[in-house]
Structure formats: C-alpha cells, structure tokens
User: Which sequence fits this backbone?
C-alpha cells in the first residue's frame, strides 16, 4: 500500500479562494437587482461587459504573456469586473468599459504578479483611470428611470454629492437648500432611487450584503464600521460647527460610493491590513480622507481616492500593527 | 458563558466516532518491541541482556539522567534482541524486543479491581514512585512526569490543572477513561495535588463531553479542592498555555513555563497512570489507544501493552480499509504520519487514525490572498503568513522578532488557509533554524 507522508495538520477546513470570492459576489446580488430596477438594461450591459472583459484580459495575460495556467475561475477577475461596473455610470459606452477592464486587470492586478500581489484595489485603479481619462462620460449620471429605461439616451442629472458641491460653491445656506427639496429624501437615498454609479446607490441592499458577508465570516466588521464611525464623527463635528456650510453625517453616509466603498472595496483582502488594529487605522484613514476630499477637494466624491491612498499605506500598517500576542 | 482561551482557535469537525465504544482489552501480543526513547529527554539505558527472562512490569531500561524515564517490560517472556528497529517514521531507533511466554506479572503489582483510597506516601515518596514507574505525559508530549512535579527552586505551584480537553478531532481515549475510570482518576489527582503541595485542582473538559463532565462532577463531589471546569469547544484548547488561560485566566509569558503563573498541568491519562503506579505499584506498561477513521470497520478504544505492533490494533478494529491513504499516530491536527505499521505503540500514542486517500490529499497550493484568516486563527497571536514568508527567505532575526519561537505548532493556520498554503511546514523549518541560532548565541 502506498501511504502518504506529510507533516501535520492532516485535515483542512475546506475553505477556498472560490468560496470567498463567490461569497462576495452573492453579497453583491441585492445591490445589482436594485441597480437593474433603477437603471434598467444599462446596468446589465455595463456589468456583463465589464465582467467579460476582465475575465478575458486575465485569461489572455496569464496564457499568452505570463505562460501560466489561467486561473480565471477563482472568481477574483469576475469580482473585479463586477466592482468596476458598480463604480461607473450605467450609460457608459462599452468601449470605455473595456479600456477600464484592461487597466484594472492588466495594470492594477497582473503587472504586480496576479492574485494576492497587487498593492491597489484593481477595480478602483480602473475606475480612477477612467475618471481622469474620460471625465465627461464618467460624470454623466443617468437618473433612475425604472426597469424599462434605455441604455444610451437616458435622462441624466447630477448626483446628490454633485448638487451639494454646486450649492456650497454658489454660497447658499445648506440648511435652506436641503429644506427646499432639490435632493432626494432619505428614504429614496436609502433605497437607491437617485443618480449615481450603477452599484453604489442602493444603501440598504449593500448593507444586506454586508450582513451576509459577516454571517459567512468572509470579512470582519472592523473596516466598514470604522469607516462609518469616522465619517459620522468627522462630518458630524463639522456639521455642528456650521450647519449652513457642512452637510449632516447621514447625508454623507448615504450619498456617493460610501456604502459600496466601505463594504466591498475597502475590505478587499489583498489590499487591506491583516490585523484588527491595522484594519481600524485603515478604516479611520479612509473615513477622514473621504470627508476631506468631499468637502475641501475639487471632486464631489472622494471614496475611491481615499481607499487607493490608504491601500498604499497597507504594507506600512501591516509592518507596525501586530496582533495582540498571547502574552 | 463557558470559559475558553482568549485569542484565535478553530473548529475542526469533531468526528468522535468511537466516543460511545467501551474500552476493550487487547490480547497480549506474541512479541513486543519496546523503544528506549519514548519520552522527551535522554534515551533510557538497558538493564537486561539478550536471553534474559523478564516479567510484566519489570524494569528493563533505566532513566538516563534527570530528564529521562524508566522503561518496563509490558509482557512476560524472553528478551530476544536489543537492537535498532524501524520506527513509525521509518527511522532506526534502539529498542528491546521481548517474545511473550505466558503472562506473569511482577508480584508487587496489585491486579485486583479494588479501588484504593488511602494515600499513605509522603510528597517525596510519591514523586519517587512516579519516577520509578516511568510515567510520562500521556497526552502525546511525553515529558517525564516527575520533572514536572519538581518545580525549579524559587517557584511554587498554586494549582494543578488536569487536561481532559481532548481537543483533537477523532480521539476519544481520554473521554472513555473519564467515563470508566473516574474514581481512579480523582484519586490520581489527589496524589498529584499532594506531590506538588497544592489545595486546588481544576479539571478542564470541553463541553462536547457532557457525560464525562457530569460523571466526574459527581465523583469529585466528595473530595475537597477539585473543580470540574466545562470549557467551550475550541481547538487547540488542550495546548498547555491555552488550557491554563481557559481555566484560570492567567497567561504564561512568552518563553516561560506554566510554573511561572503557578500552574502544573497534567493529562487525564497521566492522572490514571499515577494512581496505578502509587496505589497499585503498576508501572507504565499499558495504555488506552483510540483506533479510528471514517472507513474503519469498528472504530474503538483499546487497552494494549506498550510495544504492541500498531498493525495488531488496526486488525482489532477491522483491518486497514481499502481506501486508506494515510495512517497517523495521534490526532489529525498534530499527529505524525506513519510509514511502518509494524512499529510499536509507545507511551505517548493516544490514537491511530486512518484517513482515506481523498481526505489525506492536500489541495494544490495557491497564491496568498492576504485574507488574514491565519492571523485570526493563531492562538498565540502570531502572523503565520508573515512567519512562513520570512522562513522562505531564511530571515532569522526577523523571525525571532516576530516571536516564531512562541508557535505551538497546533496547525490552526494551515487548517484555515483558503489557499491551502502549507504555513506550518514553513514555520517549522523557520522555527528550527531560529532555535539553532538562539542556542548558538547562548554559547
């Protein structure tokens, strides 16, 4: 009889990369459904294009450039595709999405050595590249128009954050401006019935995904909760100091890419710290940077930049934030 | 809220297939091979010669120094060889081979089933009797028991902790002993308390053995100072430092021994062996071994003589199943793979586990996705992913800085890794190299 020899342990939990990646994808389903309900076929076309392009580029790069066994079905390329799509408007032309996917996978991921080796979140690398290269298309937000809405000639308008920036610039009192009813109310913001990137709008659906991932132990609470807490605290203090000039914390929490970023982008395994202490520092950094960019920066939204900046700090955080030792 | 240790830990499937199987006594084998080194420390020195006749329970090899243990014959018969045998791992090991003739025991051994209650020996006499009986830690670590009972000068034990956790999946020998030998165990615990002069003993048992908890609670109710402590099920609760923290809340500092926080830890099987040695004059020559596995016909718990070939136990459990891919001495988390099933059962063999080829094969290794699951699983608060990487690059000072020597090799990191990375394999290599560097530095 041939007996196997190996050091212990001789059993394994059965956890796999696939279980985690597909788990995150399952957690994204509610937000995707909301997106389709609000933005119609555009959401489907953009998402499918992005996923197909990401998988295709990863396969081609692994097969032809790196001469590796392609590992596209581990779910990570699909996840990058979905997250990239969730971060762009639902009327974005197909060719721009394909460029974004090439940058996300090619530069954001494979140039560093593939899965597990990249420093920056690939989907965000793709998104920010597109935002800088195609500012018009990337900030032409379709308004929610229901399931039957069309892909390319949808009605467009500003996002709540964009409107806020304009209002502040024009020197209006925010208390009056918010009372005037130009903004969607909080119920609609919670459901996602507002302009924005296709996957970022439905706060409730994203929170449901968060609970699912916590339940399945795919991620821990540390990063998202710290981001929420920092945003509430920081924007809350500013709001209390001058409510006419600074929006309230609830508005910041429910607008822009806040939920999507905190729950799904910042928690990316590869680019976030390993220890709870590190995760809390990482989350706090993202929270502070997001508010700073939103309020004092040129862009109305700062979530993507905040996450990318903190991604760069992750190796440093890992170096200095050690887990609590046994004794 | 049940007590447990504070950080890390995993929940491997328990698979306690033989939990309800009563302990069966295995027939005396035709021949036994008794290795001279069944413990941590120096191998024992033989005191018999080829051709000598020996009785069961007779001393055949003497402890060689303080950290060593006596070895006794487990059968009566003739010494046929004192030579190297092939051990479970396939390596040569010195051993005494005895051909069985009849079953004559040393006359002073009390073989009656009567339970003796009166502890008449003094503290020093108890330690001496335990040393003479060759008792070692029965949980698998096989550290000579008398050494643990002699704290270094300046240290005083405050409590005795008895390990009835049996956190390894599959193994049930301790569980059965607690159910079937509760009275003897409690007396053994009292003897150990007297030996280290403490008033308090805590028996830690995981909550998946509620029958054992209830039974020992009832048995110990008449005795002052023995507390049964039910623990939340979590691996590696049987680790010495983890168990001390779970039962007392105290944390043994890095690099220190349990006595630093006033604790002495002994296994439940050791308590039984101590009872037999002190009250029945029986040296350590038998032990209870779980033979188990999902495809094994009759998984069970067997009382067998030390030196019995592993193959005899497997036969008793229904033979080696067709699909067997790996045979393990011990449990699936920390046990060692065997290549030689003719190798003998030793003092520290708590189980024989037969895994099917499918269960035993490791998954292909993938890239680290830096999920941090190994960090949250580590019960010592280390960063296995980092230690494994440092070990690959042989960065000794960095490994020392990152406390690699604190690793207890429980395997929680490798168990939990979604990329199936052999984290502990690398850490073991790094640990042995770092350990060598530290020893050289001392010189």
Assistant:
């Amino acid at each position: 009889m041939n007996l196997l020899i190996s050091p212990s342990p001789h059993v394994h939990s059965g956890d796999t990369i696939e279980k985690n990646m597909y788990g995150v994808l399952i957690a994204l389903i509610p937000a995707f459904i909301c997106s389709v309900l609000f933005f119609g076929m555009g959401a489907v076309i953009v998402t499918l294009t992005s996923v197909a392009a990401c998988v295709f580029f990863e396969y081609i790069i692994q097969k032809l450039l790196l001469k590796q066994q392609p590992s596209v079905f581990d779910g990570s390329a699909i996840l990058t595709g979905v997250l990239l799509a969730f971060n762009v408007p639902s009327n974005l032309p197909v060719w721009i999405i394909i460029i974004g996917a090439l940058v996300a996978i090619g530069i954001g991921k494979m140039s560093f050595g593939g899965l597990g080796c990249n420093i920056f979140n690939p989907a965000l690398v793709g998104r920010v590249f597109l935002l800088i290269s195609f500012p018009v298309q990337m900030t032409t937000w379709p308004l929610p128009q229901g399931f039957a809405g069309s892909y390319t000639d949808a009605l467009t308008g500003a996002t709540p954050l964009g409107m806020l920036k304009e209002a502040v610039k024009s020197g209006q009192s925010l208390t009056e401006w918010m009372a005037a009813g130009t903004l969607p109310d909080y119920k609609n913001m919670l459901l996602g019935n507002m302009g924005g990137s296709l996957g970022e709008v439905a706060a409730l659906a994203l929170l449901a995904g968060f609970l699912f991932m916590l339940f399945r132990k795919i991620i821990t609470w540390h990063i998202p909760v710290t981001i929420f807490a920092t945003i509430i605290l920081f924007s809350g203090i500013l709001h209390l100091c001058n409510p006419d000039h600074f929006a309230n914390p609830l508005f910041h929490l429910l607008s822009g890419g806040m939920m999507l970023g905190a729950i799904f982008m910042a928690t990316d395994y590869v680019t976030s710290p390993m220890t709870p202490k590190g995760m809390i520092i990482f989350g706090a950094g993202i929270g502070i940077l997001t508010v700073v960019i939103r309020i004092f920066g040129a862009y109305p939204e700062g979530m993507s930049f905040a996450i990318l900046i903190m991604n760069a700090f992750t190796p440093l955080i890992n170096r200095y934030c050690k887990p609590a030792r046994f004794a | 809220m049940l007590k447990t240790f504070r950080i890390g830990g995993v929940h491997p499937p328990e698979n306690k297939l033989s939990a309800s199987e009563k302990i069966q006594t295995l027939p005396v084998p035709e021949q036994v091979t008794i290795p001279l080194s069944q413990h941590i420390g120096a191998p024992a020195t033989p005191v018999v010669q080829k051709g000598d006749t020996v009785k069961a329970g007779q001393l055949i090899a003497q402890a060689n120094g303080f950290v060593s243990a006596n070895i006794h014959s487990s059968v009566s018969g003739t010494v046929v060889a004192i030579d190297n045998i092939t051990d479970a791992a396939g390596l040569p090991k010195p051993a005494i081979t005895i051909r069985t003739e009849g079953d004559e025991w040393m006359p002073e051994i009390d073989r009656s089933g009567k339970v003796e209650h009166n502890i008449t020996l003094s503290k020093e006499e108890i330690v001496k009797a335990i040393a003479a009986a060759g008792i070692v830690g029965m949980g698998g670590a096989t550290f000579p028991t008398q050494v643990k009972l002699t704290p270094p000068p300046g240290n005083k034990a405050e409590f005795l902790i008895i390990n009835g956790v049996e956190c390894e999946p599959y193994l049930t020998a301790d569980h059965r002993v607690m159910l079937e030998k509760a009275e003897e165990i409690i007396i053994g615990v009292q003897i150990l308390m007297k030996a280290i002069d403490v008033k308090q003993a805590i028996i830690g048992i995981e909550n998946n053995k509620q029958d054992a908890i209830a039974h020992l609670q009832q048995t110990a109710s008449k005795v002052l100072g023995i507390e049964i402590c039910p623990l939340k099920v979590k691996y590696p609760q049987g680790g010495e430092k983890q168990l001390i923290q779970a039962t007392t809340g105290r944390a043994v500092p890095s690099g220190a021994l349990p006595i630093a926080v006033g604790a002495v830890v002994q296994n439940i099987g050791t308590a039984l062996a101590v009872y037999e040695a002190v009250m029945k004059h029986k040296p350590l020559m038998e032990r209870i071994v779980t033979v188990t596995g999902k495809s094994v016909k009759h998984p069970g718990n067997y009382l067998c003589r030390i030196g019995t070939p592993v193959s005899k136990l497997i036969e008793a459990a229904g033979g080696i199943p067709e699909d067997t891919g790996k045979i393990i001495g011990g449990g699936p988390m920390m046990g060692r793979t065997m290549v030689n099933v003719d190798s003998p059962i030793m003092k520290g063999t708590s189980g024989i586990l037969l895994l099917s080829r499918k269960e035993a094969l490791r998954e292909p290794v993938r890239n680290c996705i830096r999920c941090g699951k190994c960090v949250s699983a580590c019960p010592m608060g280390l960063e296995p992913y980092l230690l494994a990487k440092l070990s690959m690059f042989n960065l000794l000072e960095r490994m020392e800085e990152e406390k690699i020597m604190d690793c207890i090799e429980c395997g929680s990191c490798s168990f939990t890794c979604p990329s199936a990375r052999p984290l502990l394999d690398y850490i073991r290599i790094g640990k042995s190299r770092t350990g060598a560097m530290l020893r050289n530095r001392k010189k």
Remarks:
- The interface with chain B takes residues 1-13, 15-17, 19-20, 71, 74, 76, 114-117, 220, 269-270, 273-275, 318, 322-327 of chain A (CB under 8 Å).
- Residues 41-65 of chain A form the longest helix (25 residues).
